[in-house]
Amino acid sequence: MTQKPDSSAGAGAPRVIPRSDHPVSRSSISPNALRVLYRLKEAGFEAFLVGGCVRDIILGRHPKDFDVATDALPDEVRRLFRNCRLVGRRFRLAHIVYGREVIEVATFRASGAPPPSEEPVPMREEDEEEKLAAEQAASALDATQPLEIVPAASAANAAPSAAAVRHRVQDDHGRLLRDNMYGSIDEDVWRRDFTVNALYYNIADFSIWDYVGGLEDIQARRLKLIGDVETRYREDPVRMLRAARFEAKLGFDIDEASAKPIGALRGLLASVPPARLFDEATKLFLTGHGAESFRVLRARGLFAVLFPAVDRYLDQHPSSLVEQLLVQGLRNTDRRVDEDKPVTPTFLFALLLYGPIAAYIEALPPQRWHEPQAILEACDRALRAAQERVSIPRRIALGVRDMYSLQPRLEGPRGRRALRLLEQPRFRAAYDLLTLRAALGLADGGTAQWWTTLQAASAAEREQMVEAPAGGARAGGTPAGSDTKAPRRRRRRSRGGG
User: Residue 11: which residues within 8 A CB-CB, separation 6 or more?
Assistant: First the structure.
């Protein structure tokens, strides 16, 4: 039976769903997340599990991440947990670290503040200097821009105060650049994106608080944006990508009001920092629903904004082998995620850029198609074009170049050089690309099978294999692998007479 809070809570009071009327059980929650919730509660703070983890448990899924919302300030959270670090530039978040699991704790925010999932992309471990600079910048910002505490009694729809306006910074399109404001739980819900992500599980009595009809939308498998749709997309255009991601991941339908403005506003994604779009791309394609994400993005015109050169190639070559290869590669990646096997952004971008790389190579005279320099130049051109929208870290760009430059060497194995290729750091990724091409007739199947057998063979068997001609192996094929078959290369004449 649904309970209602005291009417004194105001018009914005949530519908409170008791434990007996919802399926969220503590047995479905990470033990580390429970530790965080209980410690906050015991210290006298409100503590709620919130967002996608609540949604996924209701759907019978196993959440990969658990987020907590509280009225404790970041510094108060840090004092409670020795294993806590504060992160974030637009808004401070607390990360409670338990080995490989991180529980993210966010203080309740005012309605305009960005949600945790929309924070700038965290610095990666290899970028230590950038990470240090970011931390120093964040410290400087904290010192000069005091964080405003919004009174809990503020109404969700009240006009922002003069101080609030000073702390909110937007660009010319209405996108939020900074919002250093804390608020109450009654306000926190209004800055979340979709109703299905705005459910709060209260550790105090195990109830769920629902302000916006999120539970009904989960049951109806419906995605609905909270608030004025156009304003929310303008505040953060990435919400359009998140809508596509949830549509693909959950199999939900975007309601008409939330879907209609996407066509007119999708161009705003071009103003989003490329590093953030890289992060969103990996969430779209490397979390187990990449093939469906590709379909949804293409159908809603969002793929053209993320990867314009790739989209143009696919439009010019509808239903081509290259498109089939991309889709099959994404399906293979989805299967690896389901099997809890590692997946890499390097292979993803090799798939995504396959068409443009093929186009650049095939624009050259056929006799140059297998030249390593020509292949590398084609990769560089495709990578530069892609990075105008989506940042591609250098290590990934180098990996893509290696995968493609190895294709001619894999297609024409020569004696003991084949054994040395096995030791190449990028061999496995290049081999996976070769087998995928071979499955679609873009490379010789016998050669791909020869490499498969070679890897499984003993040392003595490998010696025998490389001394004999590679069964079915041939020098040739198309390194980029478009629908066009490459001509065989002529053997060079010996310079030495006789």
Answer: 155
180-206 pLDDT per residue, tens: 578 899 999 988 899 999 999 999 999
Is residue 67 part of the annotated active site? The answer reads yes
- CA-to-CA distance for 374 and 491, rounded, in angstroms? 19
Beta bridge partners of 70: 47, 107
Q: From the candidates 179, 186, 188, 193, give the one annotated as an active-site residue.
A: 193
**What's the CA gap between 459 and 335, in Å, rounded?**
31
Topology at the third CATH level for domain 307-467: cca-adding enzyme, domain 2 (1.10.3090)
* Residue 330 contacts residue 285 (beta carbons within 8 Å): yes
Q: What is the pLDDT of residues 124-147, one digit of tens each?
A: 333 333 333 333 333 333 333 333
Fold entry, domain 7-220: Beta Polymerase; domain 2 (3.30.460)
Catalytic residue among 65, 75, 255, 483: 65
Domain boundaries defined on the chain: 7-220, 307-467
Beta strands in 138-185 (DSSP E): 148-149, 168-170, 176-179, 181-182
User: What pTM value is reported for the model?
Assistant: 0.78
193 included as an active-site residue:
yes
Q: How far is CA 325 from the centre of its chain?
A: 21
